Amino acid sequence: MRCCIISIGDELVRGLTINTSAPMISSALLEQGYSVNKVIAVGDEKRAIKQEIKQAMQTHDLLILTGGLGPTSDDLTRQVLSELFNRPLKHSKQVAQDLEKRYGPQLSTLEDQSIILEGTKIYLNPVGTAPGFSFQEKESMVMALPGPPSQMQTIFLQMLKDIVKKFPAQGVIEKRYLFGLSEEQIDPFIREWEPQVEGLSIGVCPSYGVVSVYFWQEMEARSESFSKVLCAFDKLYAKQIYSTFSPDLEKAVIELLKEKKKKLTLAESCSGGLGLTRLTDVAGASDVILGGWVSYSNIAKQQWLGVDSKLLQSLGAVSIEVAEAMAQGALERLPVDYAISITGIAGPSGGSLNKPVGTVCVALAMREEGKVFSTQFLSKGSGLRSLVKTYSVNFVLSAFFAYLKWGQEPFSKGRET
């Protein structure tokens, strides 16, 4: 099965909006064993949309369109498909009743949004007004979805069931999510194993402090060798893999805290609360995260966490000693087992010769063990604040996970408190 995604909208081709819908669809299809062959973005121009659809139909079995189903003058998808495939646009009683039930008869766009191509399967939109629809056109299946990502995702989950029924899976996918490794460090494994196993491809997607590895084998070539590859990988990187299900490191940390029946707090400076935000985005985080601090200024560090002013004056806020004091201060103020602190220079200004932009100090204070571990590092992505923050949080959560999971000392420097 060959699949093409066409994302429609001037806002996409002009760079006003990031196209998140196409990656969502591709990822969902990959989970089911389908590989997308082409992704196209086209503006709200009828001739251009027609041309892209015509070309895609010649070489693809599944065509997925996003955008252009709304009630405004630049929403052209229904009209284009009607003209291309000689399918009349007709009023749908099913859609009209659904919209009236949810929005009332006074909905100004009720009539327009109830117009659907004749002979299509309708997918009602529970979170918006534009329904999705699909139809078979000669050898190809065509699916149309609204543009807003939340609406698209909701309807596509319905469509995906029909895709699975119609098309046999092309392959099988397995995922591994790791920390503390770069793409270059994993490359020797790929070079060794890919040539040995027919139909195998291994993809690596590095981020800041974490990396995702995807193993794909074509269904026709499926063999026990695929399992051998996974076993070899899992054995080689046993102490770096934090999940086989989700790329969210914070989710793995929360699950491990629950398993160990431990509680955590964070005292953040340069990361600006990013660590707490990510952790508390995980459902059930309140069981193990009691709270925390964004002690951005020196006065906040002193008043909220009890950091000695002399320490801040002599060594500066970005120092291992201050990071340790922040973590210990946090541990003293909440009934938790562990406290993490992050302090650094996110940039683009504020750096010096001794402490360049990207310098970050972190610490982990432990109540039961009576220890505090700390370290200083130069963050990847230095010069871009958001990347320094992301790398710093990933770095410290990775070290904390490794300590909880395998008992690895989190940082090079540790002392009793």
Automatic annotation (TrEMBL):
MoaB/Mog domain ranges (all copies): 4-166
InterPro entries: CinA, CinA-like_C, CinA_C, Competence-induced_CinA, MoaB/Mog-like_dom_sf, MoaB/Mog_dom
Domain of life: Bacteria
Coiled-coil boundaries: none
CDD domains attached to this UniProt entry: cinA (cd00885)
Signal peptide: none
HAMAP family assigned: CinA_B
PANTHER family in the cross-refs: NICOTINAMIDE-NUCLEOTIDE AMIDOHYDROLASE PNCC (PTHR13939), NMN AMIDOHYDROLASE-LIKE PROTEIN YFAY (PTHR13939:SF0)
Family per similarity comment: Belongs to the CinA family.
Name of this chain's protein: CinA-like protein
Lineage of source species: Bacteria, Candidatus Aerophobota
